[in-house]
Amino acid sequence: MAETILIIEDDPSILQGLTINLQFEGYSLLTARTGLEGLRLAQERRPDLIVLDIMLPQIDGFEIIRELRSHDTMIPIVVLSARGEEADKLLGLSLGADDYVTKPFSVPELLARIRTVLRRQRQAIPARDTTRFGEVVVNLDAQRLTVGGQVVVTTAREFDLLRYFITHEDAVVSRGQILGSVWGLDQSVTERTVDNFVARLRQKIEPDPNSPRYLQTVRGVGYRFASGG
What we know:
Layout: E1 4-8, H1 12-24, E2 28-32, H2 35-45, E3 49-52, H3 61-70, E4 77-81, H4 86-95, E5 99-102, H5 107-124, E6 130-133, E7 136-139, E8 144-147, E9 150-152, H6 156-167, E10 172-174, H7 175-183, H8 191-205, E11 215-218, E12 222-225
Parallel strand pairs: 1-2, 1-3, 3-4, 4-5
Antiparallel strand pairs: 6-7, 7-8, 8-9, 10-12, 11-12
């Protein structure tokens, strides 16, 4: 499933910009414009990560970090604040923030830091070795695909693409995102390459490749993997 990020930010223009960019990256979003509302959402909804301003109405970001950490709530926190003094950074990190980004900020840098923090969080949780949907069984560690109990041969790139979809379940991902994650810096491939590989995977895992159940096309955007689980 798509990871959920809670943005606690009282500046409406920054909040809107972050929402647009993070949704484009495939994350689910929760938002709050006051400290108390943000703390309530963090405690009740337990998002995968919090992007947190410090200067907030009602209670500030430092108090939110202090409150969450005092109850052993280990949701990753990336502070995004205009308070860029070294003392503020040290306080935020010592209270338990995972990263501290100062305003004005670069959106690509913030996205990279969020991905890094989330990756560390995933690595701290035992990975799910085997994924099952319908008659399909995918062993990610062994890179083994079976359908209806029969082993299905895939190329390394096909399996990398399947792994990407499984680890981004329910997220709408663009062809560009897939290219960057699965093919990296290889300049010889195009977005049409993604379509060709998706078509090949559909032939191998879909009950009816012409009416795909798992690898769904999102018109005008890209694809979504839905296991139906």
